[in-house]
Amino acid sequence: MYTEASFMDYVLQALQQSWPFLTAFAGLAFSLIASAHVIIYKRDSRASVAWVGLIWLSPFVGAVLYVLLGINRVRRRAAGKRRTDTAGIMPSTEEYACTPAELGASLPSTNAHLADMAEVTGRLTKLPLVSGNVVQPLFDGGEAYPAMLGAIEQAQHSITLLVFLFDNDPLGKQFVEALGAAVKRGVEVRVLIDAAGARSSVPPVTGRLRSLGVRTELFMSGVLAGRFLRLNPRNYPYLNLRNHRKIMVSDGRLAFTGGMNIREAHLLTDDPARGTKDVHFRLEGPVVQQLQATFAADWVLTTGEVLEGELWFPPLTTTDGRVFARAIPDGPDQDMDRMAMSFHGALAVARRSVRIVTPYFLPERSLISALSTCALRGVRVEIVLPAENNHDVVAWAAMAQMWQVLEWGCRVSMTAPPFDHSKLMVVDDALCIIGSSNWDPRSLRLCFELGVECYDTELAARLNARIDEQLLNSHELTVSNARLVV
Fold this sequence. Notes:
Distance between the termini: 75 Å
Radius of gyration: 25 Å
CATH class of the largest domain: Alpha Beta
């Protein structure tokens, strides 16, 4: 008979001999479960193949990485909250709504075909195209930041601000002081900063904002180290998903959006060649409510607080604006692929010209095909990129695939420094797609973004003039010299 001591020795010996088999069995089980999840839930076949390969070639490690980075919990857990908590908070804009047919009749006859694009985005977003908007481009920080600070100083009731990067530099401190002063005079202020972007400065700007009474929250803050180390999936489900939107709304009537974060580099003062060019936009009119609703959706997801009522959505007033506009929210939830499909729609309806300005150009295969097909139809397709990028790896990757658009007739120009962070698309001198989206997979699949489609020939002319100015100091790529750069 076994004594208690000998029995324990037998158990320990058995475990020592069987642990390799148990480990192998656990690795096999984890790999099978993770692979099944990939196959069932992943929409991109290339991503599925890559994840399955990593899971099987790196037992345990691949499965853990997939849990951290590959599972889109926002789609399955947050989407419902975003639908229900923000439903009905935006007042009706039906008196300003414009059908595609009405848009076609309002545009010059040479641009009436762009109504087909309005049909596409209307079905995508379920938001109305609204008339009576003023959309003013603000070039670089020298124009954008004074306008934004002025709007904060003049606000009487409410301010909402959403940015990816909010640097704790002299410019950032100006915004902090202006927001703090607004709170002091009784304005309701809500500031939302992406959790990863908030760490662009040390110390982060959040502490100073909160010390002045500014209600400040971090979007997807579960990735912070303190929570991450707890190894609880509920605390870090959004490790790879960021909020890249830029929205500011003052008193529910005046909005700013585009590609510009809050950082001094956009001022182009001390050393213009090392600064960052960009275009931001000042908006008035019914479309402002759509931008405010986008902020409200992100805010309720982060805090649970529903922003509704006249404080945030005051009654609409008429403007002398002539721009037809609509917001295009995009993100890895129920809004997935809206920007990519909008780009596809714009390329499909274009008849004469497409001009694209983006800092990061790594379009997926379907967009490469759409660009090439557009050029093959005889449309002049121009892609304007910075010659010196702030992310070398992205620039090298972009150049490695550039031949795919060049060989079918797209024209690619590289602009001289300073680095251009602008995100613009102008189609047939009348349709402008503005906002925060880049032409790369991270922006179009993993980030929360915001675009605005605008129909107006005067706005298009101003943006075309900006592009022409950028092209003065540029060089055009060909298939041969693009490969030489690589």
